[in-house]
Write a structure and sequence with these properties.
RdgB/HAM1; seven-stranded mixed beta sheet; alpha/beta
Length: 189
């Protein structure tokens, strides 16, 4: 008699909102727990940051893990602030981020999520990305989860913060990246 147990992964994050979203998206496919690890803030392109971060985390944890990097990229600014959006959000908030685009005709943007998965020390991380196109708008909805209140995905009249969780997870950059991760683990079975 065989038991069908789910693969277990450690998601390296201290962000409870991210953990809840990741658990909801991976439910029934991968069992996710979290562990906060203090990693250096790396600079560079999103995929390179994700690979280095995941490799470091797997060495610290001495086992398999997933890490995530999220970028918010303004088309008018050639992709900036990109992976540095967290620092902009913490420093100038929703209003300041909106002001960054004052004077530009283009308020279009895309949200980019890059997950790294590493089997453990000595292994090369595998990268999974998801992208959602939209635009930067005046904050609407709860302002409790990063920049969700100022990002309105294309085809919707609501911001990520205003959408119900199921809808958001089905169209979000994070959901798309995790769909690729799920497909990888299903193929691996």
């Amino acid at each position: 008699m065989s038991t069908n147990t789910l693969p277990k992964l450690i998601f390296v994050t201290g962000n409870k909102n991210k953990l809840l979203e990741v658990q909801a998206i991976l439910e029934g496919v991968i069992d996710v727990d979290s562990h906060k690890v203090d990693l250096p803030e790396l600079q560079g392109e999103t995929q390179e940051i994700a690979k280095q971060k995941c490799k470091l985390a797997s060495e610290i944890l001495n086992g398999p893990c997933i890490t995530e990097d999220t970028a918010l990229c303004f088309n008018a600014m050639n992709g900036l602030p990109g992976p540095y959006i967290k620092w902009f959000q913490d420093s100038i908030g929703h209003v300041g981020i909106n002001k960054m685009l004052d004077g530009f005709d283009d308020r279009s943007a895309y949200a980019l999520c890059t997950f790294g998965y590493c089997e453990g020390p000595g292994h090369e991380p595998i990268i999974f990305e998801g992208k959602t196109h939209g635009k930067i708008v005046t904050a609407r909805g709860p302002g409790v989860f990063g920049w969700d209140a100022i990002f309105q995905p294309d085809g919707f009249d609501k911001t990520f913060a205003e959408l119900d969780k199921v809808t958001k997870n089905s169209i979000s950059h994070r959901g798309k990246a995790l769909d690729a991760l799920k497909a990888y683990f299903k193929e691996k079975k």
